[in-house]
Write a structure and sequence with these properties.
Blueprint: E1 2-12, H1 23-26, E2 29-39, E3 42-48, E4 58-60, E5 65-68, E6 70-72, H2 86-91, H3 96-101, H4 106-115, H5 118-134, E7 137-143, H6 150-165, E8 171-178, H7 189-206, E9 212-217, H8 224-236, E10 240-245, H9 253-260, E11 264-267, H10 273-282, E12 285-288, H11 290-296, H12 303-308, E13 313-315, H13 329-338, H14 344-351, H15 353-358, E14 376-379, H16 384-389, E15 396-401, E16 404-405
Parallel strand pairs: 1-4, 1-5, 6-7, 7-8, 8-9, 9-10, 10-11, 11-12, 12-13
Antiparallel strand pairs: 1-2, 2-3, 5-14, 14-15, 15-16
Helix pairs in contact: 5-6, 6-7, 7-8, 9-10, 13-14
The structure holds N-(iminomethyl)-L-glutamic acid and fe (iii) ion (FE).
Length: 407
């Protein structure tokens, strides 16, 4: 047993479902002078300070803020190489899609990822995950999508599995071979989707290497029909679905997400009214990625419109070597506060319970309540307002994952 006592503010949502609309703010409770009892890897009880029982093993939170461990529900964690050479091109005006169409971008990382051994990819990802844990991120979603053939997609997914099994991290695997059209299928996206669905996906399913299937629905990448086909196959194999939608153009990806009951749709910078309405109807979570808007020099997604329409909003990093070379979810929280104009409570829900639901973990993660996994952060912060206001320093003071003090 461990008792965390003297918590100045315990900020947490309640329950296992995503918070939407007014509840994304109002569903986050700010409890003063609290204490939390941990039993093994589970939260046993939450008390007011005075009513907490005696315990031999006490952590004194020193009057600070405590929250559930943060969850990054969208990363492209497994990749070879970085792409710093692209930044000057972007600053001179080349667009993301122009760089991709000229064989750079994702296709550049494809070569570096295919050339990297499984162990190299493991070590790189392990380093990034250690940084994230140090910042209070206790669960991370990770996508394949830089292999784009049978051997290398499976290689990426095996790395993700090892990070959980051997590395002691909590990593949720997503299969995203539909991330770009590889050179072998240049000009034939339909042929590539067919190849993924009939040649790669069955092997992924046989080896139980993913929980989600994702597709990049975008101008010049995969259109709505190709995306529908990819996700229909994914669902037929029993996987949950996600869609990279409306990052650059609103070609119908977010409408499709709602129609198909996708768990989440990602990016949504260019989302329109039809997309927002479809997602609200479908119960699809919006995974917004403010670091990507920053790096691409783009608009910030209309988070307020989505919240107003009852779409649950999560905030994630999109960590990848191109559009967001940052794995700092705290920075994304600052950006969500300033650029999405989300309240501190909405931001907290976005990186805890809503993110937990976006990775299919609403039952076990995302809130500080009895029965949930003991993933907690003691922040070098007096309250939630301070946490989202301070920028550029790591404010995670103590991190507890599955009941173990990992920082
Ligand atoms: O989510 N949009 C597509 N995929 C990634 C970028 C990947 C890359 O540029 O390497 C994203 O932004
Ligand atoms: Fe992404």
């Amino acid at each position: 047993m461990i008792l965390i006592k003297n918590i100045g503010m315990l900020a947490t949502a309640e329950g296992n479902e995503p918070l939407r609309g007014a509840a994304q703010h109002g569903g986050v409770k700010l409890r003063r002078n609290a204490a939390v009892m941990i039993n093994g890897d589970t939260i046993q009880a939450v008390y007011d300070n005075g009513s907490a029982p005696e315990c031999d093993n006490v952590i004194d939170a020193g009057g600070r803020l405590v929250t559930a461990g943060l969850i990054d529900a969208h990363t492209h964690l497994i990749f070879g190489g970085w792409r710093q050479h692209e930044v000057p091109l972007k600053l001179r005006g080349a667009s993301y899609l122009e760089i991709l169409q000229a064989g750079g971008g994702i296709l550049n990382t494809l070569v570096a990822t295919r050339n990297a051994s499984e162990d190299e990819l493991y070590e790189r990802a392990e380093k990034a995950l250690a940084e994230m844990l140090d910042h209070g991120i206790t669960t991370v979603e990770a996508k394949s999508g830089y292999g784009l053939d049978v051997e290398n997609e499976l290689k990426q997914l095996r790395v993700i599995r090892r990070l959980s099994a051997e590395g002691g991290f909590s990593v949720v695997p997503t299969f995203m071979a539909a991330h770009a059209v590889p050179p072998e299928f240049k000009g034939d996206p339909d042929g590539y989707i067919e190849f993924i669905c009939t040649k790669i996906l069955p092997k992924v399913a046989d080896d139980e290497l993913c929980e989600f299937v994702d597709v990049f629905c975008e101008t010049g990448v995969f259109d709505v029909e190709q995306s529908r086909r990819m996700l229909t196959y994914g669902q037929a194999y029993g996987f949950k679905t996600k869609i990279h939608a409306d990052e650059i153009d609103a070609i119908g990806g977010s409408v499709l997400a709602g129609e198909m009951g996708a768990v989440s749709a990602e990016h949504l910078i260019a989302i329109d009214k039809a997309g927002i309405e479809s997602m609200a109807r479908g119960g699809t979570i919006a995974c917004l990625l403010p670091g990507t808007s920053l790096y691409l020099g783009k608009e910030f997604a209309p988070a307020r419109d989505m919240i107003a329409a009852g779409v649950p909003v999560a905030v994630c990093t999109d960590f990848n070597p191109g559009s967001c070379p940052s794995n700092d979810l705290q920075l994304c929280m600052n950006l969500a506060y300033l650029k999405y104009r989300m309240t501190p409570e909405e931001v907290l829900a976005a990186v805890t319970i809503n993110a937990a639901c976006a990775v299919g973990r609403g039952e076990t993660l995302g809130t500080v309540e009895p029965g949930k996994q003991a993933d907690l952060v003691i922040w070098d912060a007096e309250d939630l307002d301070y946490l989202v206001y301070r920028m550029g320093t790591n404010k995670a003071e103590k991190v507890i994952r599955k009941g173990n003090i990992v920082k």
